[in-house]
Fold this protein.
Amino acid sequence: MGLQDGRKKLLGVRVLVVDDDPDSLDTACFVLEMHGAQVLSVASVSAGVAAIPGFGPDVVLSDLCLPGEDGYSLIRRLRALPADQGGRTPAVAMTAHSFYEDEERALREGFQLFLTKPMDPDRLVERLGGLVHRFPAPRRDDGSQAGPGAG
Amino acid sequence: MHGSAAPQWLHSGRAVCELGIRTLRNEIDEYPELGREPLVIEAHTALKLALAALDAIGERPHAARLAEAQAAFSRARDAVAAARGRIDALRQARTG
């Protein structure tokens, strides 16, 4: 997928980014915004879960290693939500640990994708763009179509 | 940079700036008039400056250089956001 394709696929897509490291947060938000995504960044699981109803993300991108509640807790709390409240929102795990067991556990817990740090921006755009099109966001309560191609 | 001086941030930051430059070039290829847009030119310059600031850190990070790189990266992010607004407006005008 080319850059233009990636941009088109992320244009208007709402991405919730959860990472306690400001540097990682900055770079992820930068590359996603560059490709037209609407990004909300938070530093903790509790803030991420609290943001879901109002922000209505099309996809969640979360670090696994977070202080207190970790990324696995986030995905469990996300998947416990009813579908119409975001419970089926596709989610991407990011971590500096690239062991097979980490990936296997992340996917088993409910993430759709597993990406390793340091972040490869091309790969992030390509994989995220593909994911939101495989899991299109449901129609929102206000009648608007969330996700790519909206508006 | 927020004080962590993490090598992975340097790697990712550099990759993001390179991607930003390529993205702007692709946009200009598609819409050549963007090459004369001040916001796009500023964004391109800011990305190159951020890249240079990241490169200046080298293998022996120094607090002042890290702070410079952080500031340059933030400026690039703001500049790209401003340019993106212009690009999206042009794209929308063209596509209806």
Observations:
- Chain A has six helices and five strands.
